[in-house]
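dumping this here before i forget
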Amino acid sequence: SLRNIYKEMQQELGLPVPDNGYLMPWAEQGVLLLNAVLTVRGGEANSHKGKGWEKITDAVIRAVADRPDPAVFVLWGNYAQKKLPLIDEERHIVVKGAHP
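structure:
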């Protein structure tokens, strides 16, 4: 997915595609990349769905959404877009798109 995000940034913004996954500069700017399920069995998408990760990641989304400063939420894919009820669209910007 990160490679696809990089490719999209190159196509849309003309940014060079990094040759690594070092994301500290993004984190320092406040970017949080979060999957709804944090682990997966190798080569088996969604293999750990329903194992409890969703409670944790929903709590993270709520914590960010409850902060006083507005945030931008980018919900990539149908599963991520189901998290929309956790976010107050009056206070935050929500961008939806296909899963990278």
